[in-house]
Amino acid sequence: MVQNIRLGVNIDHVATVRNARGGKYPDPTRAALLAERAGADGITAHLREDRRHIGDQDIASLMQELRIPLNFEMAPTLEMQEIALKHRPNAVCLVPEKREEVTTEGGLDVVKDEARLGDFIDPLKKSDCRISIFIAAEKKQIDAAFRVGAQVIELHTGAYCDLSYDGMVAERDIELNRLVEMARYASEIGLEVHAGHGLTYNTVKPIASIVELTELNIGHFLIGESIFCGMEKAIIQMQTLINEARNNIIVD
Questions:
Q1: Active site includes 197?
Q2: Looking at the 3D structure of the chain, how many domains does it have?
Q3: Spatial distance between the Cα atoms of 114 and 135, rounded to a whole number of angstroms
Q4: Could you say which of 46, 53, 87, 194 is catalytic?
Q5: 94-143 pLDDT per residue, tens
Q6: Looking at the domain assignment, is residue 100 inside a domain?
Q7: Contact 9, 40 (CB under 8 A)
Q8: Which of 53, 156, 194, 197 is catalytic?
Q9: Between vectors from CA 215 to CA 115 and to CA 165, what angle results, nearest 5°?
Q10: pLDDT category of residue 27 using cuts at 50, 70 and 90
Q11: Is position 52 within any domain?
């Protein structure tokens, strides 16, 4: 029997709209509670160093109001470690961050920073935060994530989605196969495997069909789609597509 897959809803870009006017609305916590009501299994929020969308007050509010888990995305900096230790969210997902980027452009280079990350992660694990690392679907990065003590990896699906939008079918299929193979490998060595970035109604099913995945994190598309149909309907439709993909998996 294929395990159900959880849906985490990223509410960062509700805060992007709010911050465009410098006011208090729309409220990311209200969006998170709507997502919770629609059946989301968790909420993801990325507190960036430049606070371009989610702010410190949003993290405090989410921790107070949510009944479902908060996945706190953050760069591996001492400032963010201190904030995570203060709030102790259910999960901490370490992501790369560049101030000049529009959105997260790729996975964290764990291999390059391996010597530091083990010590960085240790106090977070001792505070009962599950540690996830957002990485490319590469064996060397998966091995490094395992060595530094991550319990979870989140595979970056952005390249697969971009190739899908550009109609580059052969390249898209190569990237999808890479995601399938690396999800299997990560699961075999004992890591829980999540995925996310750039997923839409048109691209989610092949990813949701990867047997080893236990969670998808989706944000920008759902926030955009909610402008037209409302957040609850957008989330329910995404969950329907995910469930259809899981139900059609044939296990040998």
A1: yes
A2: 1
A3: 13
A4: 46
A5: 999 765 544 556 789 999 999 899 999 999 999 999 999 999 999 999 99
A6: yes
A7: yes
A8: 197
A9: 95
A10: very high
A11: yes
Across the range 189-194, mean pLDDT stands at 97
- C-alpha to C-alpha distance for 222 and 218, rounded to whole angstroms: 7
- Which amino acid is residue 100, in one-letter code? E
Instruction: For the chain, give the percent of residues with pLDDT over 90.
Output: 84
- Known active-site residue 13: no
The reply to whether 212 falls in a domain is yes
Please give the pLDDT value at position 244. Answer: 94
Catalytic residue among 73, 97, 175, 215: 73
Q: 76 is in which domain, residue-wise?
A: 6-247
Query: In the chain, what percentage of residues exceed pLDDT 70?
Result: 95
Nearest residue to 136 (alpha-carbon basis) of 114, 169, 159: 159
Is residue 200 a part of any domain in this protein?
Answer: yes
In the annotation, is 156 catalytic?
Answer: no
Task: Say whether pTM exceeds 0.70.
Answer: yes
- CATH code: domain of residue 106: 3.20.20.70
